[in-house]
Every structure is written in structure tokens, then in C-alpha cells.
Amino acid sequence: MLVARTVDWDGDAIAAIDQRALPAEYRVRRLATVDAVVAAIGDLTVRGAPALGAAGALGVALAARRHPGDPDRVRAEAERVAAVRPTAVNLRRGMERALARLDDGAEAVLAEACAVLDEDEATNRRLSARAADLLTELCGDRPLRLLTHCNSGALATVAWGTGLGAVRELAGRGRVAEVLACETRPLLQGARLTVWELREMGVAHRLCVDAAGASAIARGLVDAVVVGADRVAANGDAANKIGTYAHACAAVRSGVPMVVVAPESTVDHATPTGADIAIEERDADEVRTVAGTPIAPSGTAVYNPAFDVTPAALLSAVVTERSTFRDGAWTVETAPALR
Ligand SMILES: CSC[C@H](O)[C@@H](O)C(=O)COP(=O)(O)O
Q: Signal peptide: which range, if any (predicted)?
């Protein structure tokens, strides 16, 4: 059963699928305070850029309900939520969108936050269809062998997914031969979450270690690389889970297309290039341990960036629900003329 909504509003609290527990256990956590939301974002109970946008917006709704008549306190709480994960721009966007309704009262803030959730699935279905069309154009109309990294599926959004949403769309068209899912160290979102989703979707897949991605591409086992993004700069450079850049280098060397699939809310035109994207650095123990078991001498110094930046020049395209970055420029799809 693929989840209905990864993040939702449940009367007086946020209901969030606990992504730390999957695939062993499917459980939903209730987050009733801003402190709980901050903790859940920090420990990746809720993760994935669009899902973070939804959680950020609902976090403001919780703060507005808790502190009616104290807008300064609500703003401070909203800032605390947005600061937890600096790279995924959707988090701040969701927070700011809900906060913009603060003058209209707590129920207006909640309504705006719920609108963020309500728009998510339609947006993701649209960008997935556009990305699937482009992949078909780039690779030919045949079942494709796709490589993906981290998790950009329904779990990373409110519903449906982005990069993995495009895979889902292609699978629905009968155009997926196999997905190679990279495990995605250190927190294994690929192994735990993407594989879980692919199994639920009934899509053929194999799991590989991250280091196998480049040689799989070089050996001709991959027709295209498809990933999501946490922030796309104005020049098309894309920040995504650490390890994405290595796949891009391999893809370019082998002439394999690579497409980044993300909503407009992940594109940050205020950030000129990838060099301007703040990269979140996470706790050293994520690298020194696997599922709580030490794999390195205690106290080992660690470099643990959560994301890397793939220059636009290495990408075939960035696809959103209404625009495409390709060959150095954005083109925006115009709405079909009304008859
Ligand atoms: C669609 S969410 C963004 C990405 O595509 C996803 O791969 C990713 O990097 C998420 O990172 P996470 O640290 O798990 O929140």
C-alpha cells in the first residue's frame, strides 16, 4: 500500500509517517508542538524537500494556534522550524507561505498550510508526466533501465513523488525495465525508502551500493539517471543528496542522460549558482555508525555534508511542473489557449 499522505493535518496536530522506522515498521507519529516538529525535521522523521515544505507550513500553523495575539513569538517559532535544514528551500518556502497569513489569524495560517499539502500531489503528477515525456524523448520510447539516488518518491513529498514520481509515471506507461536504487549512505534512504516504494509499486529493481553507480553507468547498465533535488539555483545547478554529483560525472562520461525532477518550489531564483547554496552538515555519528552499530573508531573525525551540487552543465535537464532548464536556459510552458 503506497501511502496516501506522508504529512497531514489531523485535527490538532501533524500526522507524519515516521521515515526512520521504514521499512521495518510503518508507523505514524503525531507532532503536536513546535518542539516536536523541530525534532522530527532534525532526526529525519520527516524528510525530502517537498515534505519538509508541508511540515514547515504546518509547524507555523501549530505556532499560530499556540500563541494567538503574539505574532513576534509565532515568527520566532517559524524561524526556528525553517532553520533546522538549510539546504532544502521548500522548508523555508512552506514556512513563509503560511506565515504570510498571520495577520488574518491562526485559522487562516492553517488553511494556507493545508493548501500547500493539497497542491502537492497534482504538482508532482504534472512534473512527473513532463519528466517522463522528456526521458522518452532522450532515450527512446522503450522500457528504460533507470538509476536513482536517495529517495524522491511519495515519502519525500506529501504524495506521489518527484524523481521517483517520474519513474512511477514511466512504469504506468510500461516503460521501466529496471531501477537501480543506490543505497545512499549514510542514512540509507535509497535502501530503506526507495526500495520499499518500488516494491509497493511493483517496479523491477535492484539495490546497489553508492560506489557501484558510476561503474554500472560505464558498463552500459543504465539508460538514464533520474533524481530529485533539494534546491535548484537560478543557473540550473542542483543540490541533491550527497553522491548525486558522482553519478552525474559518470553519466556525462558515458553519454547517459541525467534528469533532475523537482517542483517549482524547489527552484530558487534568488540563489544565482550552486556555489551559493548552503550545504547542511550533519552529525558525525551518522557516518561513524550504521543503524547504531559503530563502524569506525570512536571519536574519528568526520566530513558529513548531507548534499552535493551538480553543475547544470552535467545535467540533461531540470524539469518542474511548468518549466525546463535545458541547454543553459529556462523555458516556461505556456498554458494551452482556451477555446
Ligand atoms: C524529493 S526530495 C530531495 C531529494 O531528491 C532527495 O533525494 C534528498 O536529497 C532528500 O534528502 P533528505 O536528507 O533525505 O531529506
A: none
For residue 61, what are the contacts with CB-CB under 8 A and spacing of at least 6? 9, 98, 106, 109, 110, 113
Can you tell me the distance from the alpha carbon of 178 to that of 191, in angstroms, rounded to the nearest whole number?
Answer: 15
Does the model's ipTM exceed the 0.90 cut?
yes
Catalytic residue status for 230:
yes
For 39-75, the pLDDT digits (tens) are 999 999 999 999 999 999 999 999 999 999 999 999 9
The pTM (predicted TM-score) of the whole model is: 0.96
Alpha-carbon span 283 to 299, nearest angstrom:
12
Write out the three cell numbers for 138.
532522450
Q: Are 321 and 127 in contact (CB under 8 A)?
A: yes
**Distance between Cα 189 and ligand 1 center (Å):** 8
Residues 310, 316: Cα–Cα separation, whole Å: 11
Q: 65-70 long-range contacts, Cβ below 8 Å, gap at least 24?
A: 65/12, 65/106, 65/110, 66/33, 66/34, 68/105, 68/106
